[in-house]
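Thread: "does anyone have the structure for this chain?"

Original post by V.I.:
We have the sequence but no experimental structure in hand. Need at least a predicted one for the grant figures.
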Amino acid sequence: MDTNTDQSQTQNTTVEEAEIVEAPRGSMTIVELTALINRYEGDMKKMRDNLKIQNGMLRDAVEGDASYHELDVQSKDLNKKKAEIKQKISKTPAMEAVVAKIEEYRSEIKDAHEMLSGYLEEYQRVSGTNIIEGENGEIKEIVPMYKLVKRGNR
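Reply from O.Q.:
Generated one for you, tokens below.
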């Protein structure tokens, strides 16, 4: 009977720890939000740590296999040869111009993405909506990307 009670208590504890409480927007205080954010951040760190451990166990088991190790060495040799040939081709005068154009396009796309992001933010602020209609009539949603970044010491 004690075993059933222990299992019941364990199950209740697990449910309480995993329970997600949703509150209507605007009804939570800054203190409550901060606590919730910090809890989620801590939970995510624990999950990432557990993932690293499991990935390490899998990697060790795979790398310990002799046939895998042999194929891995062969693969690395082939990749090295492939990279050398690609480098040789890229160094030809005709391909140097192509490589430069590729880098230019990548830079322009990155700049355009940053500009679009700013325009979308301004559109959302001015219009008061996160919905925009494309040229072809397609309805799109503006989605902000939020994340936590460690702040440097100032």
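V.I.: this helps a lot. The radius of gyration is 26 Å.
O.Q.: and The helical segments are 2-18, 30-63, 66-90, 93-127.
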